[in-house]
Amino acid sequence: MPRLYLVSPSHHLADGRLVKTTRYWTSGLTMPTLKALAPRDWKVDIVDELMADVDLDHPADVVAIGAMGPQISRAYDLADAFRARGKKVVLGGPWVSLAPHERSLAHADAIVVGEAETVFARALEDLAAGRSAGVYRAGEFVRMGKTLSRPKNDDRTIAETSHPDIYQNIDYRDLQLIRWDKWKTSPFYRLYFHWPLVFSRGCPHPCNYCAVQAFYKRSYRTRNIDAVIENVRQIKAFGGRNLLFLDDNPIADVDAAKELFARLIPEKIKWTSQCTIEIARDPELLDLAARSGCVALSIGLESNEEPVLDSLKKRFNRAPRYAEDLAALRAKGIQVIALMMFGMDGQTDGVFDETLKFLVDHKVSLVKFFTPAPYPGTAYHEEMRQAGRILNEDWGRYDYGSLLVQPTGMDARTLRSGFDRTYKHFYGLPAIAKRMLALPRRNRREHAAYLVANLKTWHFLKKNPSAWGTIS
Ligand code: B12
Ligand code: SF4
Fold first, then answer.
1. Where is the B12-binding domain (predicted)?
2. Is 265 within the bounds of a domain?
């Protein structure tokens, strides 16, 4: 029986340490999905290096490694180590798909470009038989069940495959980052761990820095809602009640999202996800989301300055509406995790204090700051490359906060210190008190959990003033 070893690498911190953790709040579905796509007669093992060590002597016929962001450097190192031991290696995922293919092919026997559904099994069979086509490119996007919007500027069609909804075949026991021992014994861990599931793929928006729209060419597909509800019930059968939709934007097809949320109400779950601020502007959608158990959303506000949003091709965010939008979300008891960028063109050193004031005034629960990251394959990367402004070509540093692009509105040192200072003040005790002490009318238990998360971050930042190199 041929054997496949699926590896999700970790990444290195700037000081060279490999990031490891003993528990993590969720688990991706990439590797369980690839397992479900392997031919039936293959024996498959999965390892996530965040929690476990990679076995370089695993008796695999083929090793498949996926990578996002800074994982790519570690993925290349592991690929080299496996190949030095005579193993066949295939690389895939959004980074490998979007970056120049020769960079990855220097470390692998084959690469998968795009969604694995239509090509992965063929790549595995070829490699096991000692052949390789080099690049296995998904010629089509996969029909996922329900609605679709066609890709923009792309001649790929939507494929009818034998895997119209691969998520139905996922075995949740394969999740690598769940601590089953703690799951069984600790109610706190049950509150902490979020079970992953998927409703849609892609996003139709044009944000110029975004790897998702580059990877999916602005196509958007949702699953059949019966199949999603089936996943919800599978998770509930394990005792899971806190769910995380891994989608990039589950509300992009508003009608489909409303149907999903309405169907989730009787399931009595709690869920979180990321989506655009547009959710706050459709009262029916927002109400259904809240009633279906939405307790928190990561939202890419990015900037509260219109010209900056314009330059990101994110005009739909409409900064002047943020105050009203955030109030609407708060009124529904939905915690907002704001994603904000520092160092974009048009931002000067005043941006730090203004952003801090805005976030505190509007009682944002958590924040993640980002320095501009020119991910290969995005329009932003091309723009910065042509302008000669990319400061760092070491992909292992493409994390949340390394300085990768020469800023224009301030010098690099001001950006670095402003970025760290704003984090420190946002998670300082006075700001936490202002943001978190007024209890919402709904979801008080979740609010308390987010208060604890704030206090933990405050504690962590006291010891690690530049905390952005960490995974999430
Ligand atoms: C869960 C998740 C995480 C988890 C992962 C936990 C874990 N280890 O299990 C956490 C929170 C740790 C994480 C962290 C980061 N993430 Co992340 N993450 C995701 C998320 C939300 C879901 C991934 C998933 O399970 N998807 C479901 C599966 C089925 O889809 P998929 O992964 O796309 O896989 C399909 C194809 O891409 C392809 N494929 C993917 N991998 C491989 C590998 C092989 C070998 C093959 C053949 C095919 C293949 O086939 C699959 C089936 O079609 C995605 C967004 C998304 N919606 O996918 C972002 C995403 C993958 N993350 C991203 C990024 C940037 C990061 C960070 C770098 C963020 C940061 N700035 O620090 C970090 C770094 C990670 C690290 N070093 O560990 C980007 C990747 C961009 C890029 N060009 O690489 C994404 C797309 C989010 C985004 N909006 O930009 N992430
Ligand atoms: S809204 Fe989010 S997921 Fe969609 S293109 Fe913009 S950044 Fe990407």
1. 47-134
2. yes
